Amino acid sequence: MPFGILDCKKMEVVPGTAFMTDQDDLPPELADIPRERLKHGTGRFKDVILVPQPSDSPNDPLNWPQWKKELILFIVGLSAAVVGAYGPMLSPGFVEIADNLHITVEVLAQSTAWLILCIGLGLFLTNPLAKIIGRRPVYLLAMVIMFVTSVWGAAVTEYNSWLGSRILAGVGMAPYEVLVQCTIGDMYFVHERATRIAVWNLFLLTGISGGALIAGYIIERDGYRWTFGVCAILFGILLIAVIFLVPETAYRRDSVLPVPVSDQEEREGEGSVHKMKLGHDHDVQHVNEKEMHTTYDGEGGTAEKKHTYLQSLRVFTGRYSYAPGWKVFARPVILLFYPAVFWGFLIYAKGTTLTWIVVFSVVNGVIFVGPPYNFSISQTGLISLSPFVLTIIGELISGPLNDWICIHLTRKNKGVYEPEFRLPLMIVATILGVVGFFGFGATVQYQTHWLGPVLCFGLANMSLVFASTCVFGYVVDSYREHNEEAFVAINARNLLTFGLTYFVNDWLAEQGALIVFSILGSLFLFVTLLTIPLWIFGKKIRSFTGRNEWLQRFMNDKA
After folding, report:
1. What does the domain layout of the chain look like in residue ranges?
2. CATH entry 3.20.20.370 includes domain 61-252+323-555
3. CA distances in angstroms from 470 to 184, 195, 464, 517, 543, listed in the order given
4. 355: confidence class by pLDDT, cuts 50, 70, 90
5. Nearest one of 17, 51, 25, 549 to 253, comparing CA atoms
6. For a designed S-S bond to 352, which of 370, 464, 557, 558 qualifies (C-beta 3.0 to 4.6 A apart)?
7. In what residue span(s) does the Major facilitator superfamily (MFS) profile domain sit (predicted)?
8. What does the pLDDT look like over 6-27, one tens digit per residue?
């Protein structure tokens, strides 16, 4: 293998590896592939072979019109933005809210910790559930919960009720923090995914940073209750949009043909079928022109008609995993021991990570309201303008850049795509994160002009953009059939965030910003450097998990 990636000879086709571009200098093992029968991209991607290969069904999300895919992504992405704002939007008004509820700022910060904990625990329920019954019912239930808790939060008058609303909201927030990546994997091909993951990231992270920016003015003018009121209005509108415009994207793509094809049948002439394995996830069967007019369902045997609009509004569309429920719910724990997934957990939990970004949102409400900055509530909210702008810039760059790197390296690799081609993006994330974390601690400690810590705050957020695009792109491509469970494992970082937000203000007061953020920055640097061994050994690791018989039986959705 080129580029320093170690090859694996123990498995003919390693999970995640795919033949993706038309080239004359194919490796010998791929030289006999009937490329003219493969479905390709269009326009500037006309030489890109679609991975996964779509079926011929009009109900396959891969075959949906582009406008329909983008509309669904826009709605669930916008929902993720409001969900992202729901947690940190109150940080500019921490002091006022604590006074109103007759509690200390430290106790109020702990309610945020409980919210984060329930997001993490909620993922262990909602994502495996989406694996079994589909994405749509989970999205709908989550949106109903967010609408109810927003109304509840606006009416709260005492702390216990406040805490109850935050705990329930955590369960509702969970799907929009993680399940969206699975929806992207349902609808988009490999060469399109990083850009769409970046779009989802753009919505989520601008919600996190922009929510506090807008909420600062709302709290100062109308009080903190109206932040919940605005959220209730938005969640109500989005609930209607999800009901009428977001159909089920999960799809059983087991086979394009109704019956298995033997080796003898493959060699026959007219009416033959050419079969090629594009990876563990994708058994692609190519039907000759004579058979292409017939469409089959994922179970095989009966022609599949295009669903009507009313049929697409069904909440429940069947079961998508036939494995016992306990297995599906236990898989996130097993997947956490997959090196690639554990790496994603470390990056997302201890690297640039939302964990540290949440720490910023907690401490900003304390650092900037006192001397030497003495910011007002609205000015504290304006701190989020820096990550808001830099997040947008990062998203505009990270997704297209990651897709371009993948296609470029695939062409250099004789048309063979490896998920490790997603990893070079971590170089940018590492540079931005080092400057952001160490810079924030130093500028706050030495009380520089407010521009210093505000800019470093933005750079740390920007590093999260590149890191998350890299992490989720790599996991989606490596373990496509188990995205739901893998993302639960990665987002177990919420349990770490819960513990950290519980004591971070006391830690900051005791040791100072320089020591606190130097420790966080050092942890960030260490875990991002783990990308190097993953680059080298990633393919061998994917081969090992793909060859392990016990893992394959446990992860099988057919029984």
Report:
1. 61-252+323-555
2. no
3. 14, 11, 10, 24, 21
4. low
5. 51
6. 464
7. 72-559
8. 988 888 778 888 877 666 555 5
